[in-house]
Amino acid sequence: MASQVLIFAHNNAYNKDVLQENAYYYSSSNELKGLIEGVDKIRLSDYDAFNTNNSKRITNYYNWDSIIERHIEVFSKYLDR
């Protein structure tokens, strides 16, 4: 995400949660092969949007303040019992 390259990611829950709609997903080696072979047909606007969205996600979601806040929320639920 941070290196601002086009991302082809395996279609699974973790990757979907992290990358959201900012990557191209594949479920099989044949699908990955098709993505690689068709890389020259990917629109520059998609590439730019993916990079912009991924950069924003890193800044807004994957930073220490956000991570600490989410941990406090989880711990507070269990400590308040």
Write the SSE topology:
Elements: E1 8-10, H1 13-19, E2 24-26, H2 29-37, H3 44-60, H4 64-79
Parallel strand pairs: 1-2
Features:
single chain, about 80 residues, mainly alpha, two-stranded parallel ribbon, 4 helices, 2 strands, about 60% helix, about 5% strand, elongated
Structure commentary:
The protein is mainly alpha-helical and 81 residues long. It is 60% helix and 7% strand. It is built from four helices and two strands. The protein has helices spanning 13-19, 29-37, 44-60, 64-79; strands spanning 8-10, 24-26. Strand 1, helix 1 and strand 2 form a beta-alpha-beta unit. The longest helix is centred in the middle third of the chain and has 17 residues, at 44-60.
> What percent of residues adopt helix (DSSP H or I)?
55-70%
> Which residues form runs of ≥5 with pLDDT under 50?
none
Strand order of the largest sheet: 1-2
- Could you say how many structural domains there are in total? 1
Largest sheet, in brief, is:
2 strands, parallel
General form: elongated
End-to-end gap? 38 Å
- What's the helix-strand series? EHEHHH
Cα-atom radius of gyration: 17 Å
Structural class: mainly alpha
Beta-strand residue fraction: 5-15%
Average pLDDT, to the nearest integer? 91
Number of H/I helices = 4
Number of strands: 2
